[in-house]
Amino acid sequence: MPARVVIAEDEAIIRLDLKETLEEEGYEVVGETGRGDEAVRLVNDLSPDIAILDIKMPGMDGLEAARAITSARKAAVLILTAFSQRDLIEQARDAGALAYLVKPFQKSELLPAIEVALGRFREMQALGDEVDGLQEQLETRRLVDRAKGILMDKHGLGEGDSFAFIQKTAMNERRPMKAVAEEIVAGQLTP
């Protein structure tokens, strides 16, 4: 399946050239605009794999758009601009851009930059998903420990019996242990 791309470039000629280059190489350009605020909307609406953004655009500059897109983990961001000042490069990095190309660009530079940005974004998504899963596990563990403490203090069960009660109730009712623990903590479930 080809990578889906949103292009945000205020110069129509460059935008058209970029679109043709990408489509020739098998990418699917799903949206294009000359405004930064519109780029954020397109990314939210169309869920592309990557957004290619110019820095200087009306409505919202490319750095602000990159920040909005990357903070929501919506798509990889590649900055394509005529500016090569170090402070802009650092701002782009801090805004979450995964690649930075200076115009005029060559196809031989653009395609590797896109693929590297897409690869890094996939890695970041996987890590983010892993972190989310670990946070959920930690939250469940804390809640189960709190429920065990309540069962031990208020109902005189031992630690093992408290855990067994939570686990057995969850299995019998086909519910997550977290849900059972929440009910115990709320005082809605007792042994």
Please write out the topology.
Blueprint: E1 4-8, H1 12-24, E2 28-33, H2 36-46, E3 50-53, H3 62-71, E4 76-81, H4 86-94, E5 99-102, H5 107-155, H6 159-172, H7 177-185
Parallel strand pairs: 1-2, 1-3, 3-4, 4-5
Helix pairs in contact: 2-3, 5-6, 5-7, 6-7
Describe the structure.
With 191 residues, the protein is of the alpha/beta class. 60% of the residues lie in helices and 13% in strands. The protein has 7 helices and 5 strands, in the order βαβαβαβαβααα. The protein has helices spanning 12-24, 36-46, 62-71, 86-94, 107-155, 159-172, 177-185, and strands at 4-8, 28-33, 50-53, 76-81, 99-102. Strands 2-1-3-4-5 form a 5-stranded parallel beta sheet, sandwiched between helices. α2 packs parallel to α3 (62-71), α5 (107-155) packs across α6 (159-172) and α5 crosses α7. It is elongated, with a radius of gyration of 25 Å.
**SSE class:** alpha/beta
| Principal-axis shape | elongated
Amino-to-carboxy terminus distance: 53 Å
Poorly predicted ranges: none
Please trace the helix and strand order, writing H or E for each element.
Answer: EHEHEHEHEHHH
Q: Give the spatial strand order of the biggest sheet.
A: 2-1-3-4-5
Please name the defining characteristics of this protein.
alpha/beta, 191 residues, 5-stranded parallel sheet, elongated
